[in-house]
Amino acid sequence: MAIWSLPAQAAEINPLSVHVLNLQTGQPSPGIRVDLERRIDATHWQPLGSGTTDEQGRVRALVPASELPKWSAGEYRVVFRTGEFYARQQQASFFPEIPVVIRVDSAQQHYHVPLLLSPYGFSSYRGN
């Protein structure tokens, strides 16, 4: 029986992930840029980082490693740049971007933000 050990950094789980699924096709949506921002005050947001959905439509680690020590409870905005995605496909869409504002209650929990997407509508929820 083999015993495997993971390096310390591999065992560390990123606190925020996203997943984008195309409602028209039922398939993942690769190539969507996703930005992460932290609310500073009532009208200002601080950019933290960004990622691009992979072939499975996922960004598995949206919080940059440099921000992990500062990750804390608060309000964050996940912005899906859907206009860029549809423009590359030469397809019209109604939403150039989809901002989803979330509340992080505990820095020790994992938060997952799925987006169900079509050119003229979307839905999001807290996943796991």
Notes on the protein architecture:
The protein is mainly beta and 128 residues long. It has a single domain, classed as Immunoglobulin-like. It is built from two helices and eight strands. Strands 4-1-7-8 form a four-stranded mixed β-sheet, with no helix packed on it. The protein has a four-stranded antiparallel β-sheet with strand order 3-2-5-6, with helices on one face. The two termini are 31 Å apart.
Q: Spell out the CATH superfamily.
A: Transthyretin/hydroxyisourate hydrolase domain
* Secondary structure: helix percent: under 10%
Rounded to the nearest angstrom, the radius of gyration is 16 Å
Write down the CATH class.
Mainly Beta
Q: Count helical runs.
A: 2
CATH topological fold name: Immunoglobulin-like
Low-confidence segments, ≥5 residues, pLDDT <50?
1-11
Can you summarize this structure?
With 128 residues, the protein is mainly β. The protein has two helices and eight strands. It has a single domain (15-124), classed as Sandwich (Immunoglobulin-like).
Features of the shown structure:
128 residues; mainly beta; Immunoglobulin-like; four-stranded antiparallel beta sheet; 2 helices
Strand and helix map with partners:
Elements: H1 8-11, E1 16-22, E2 33-39, E3 45-52, E4 58-59, E5 74-80, H2 82-88, E6 98-104, E7 111-118, E8 121-124
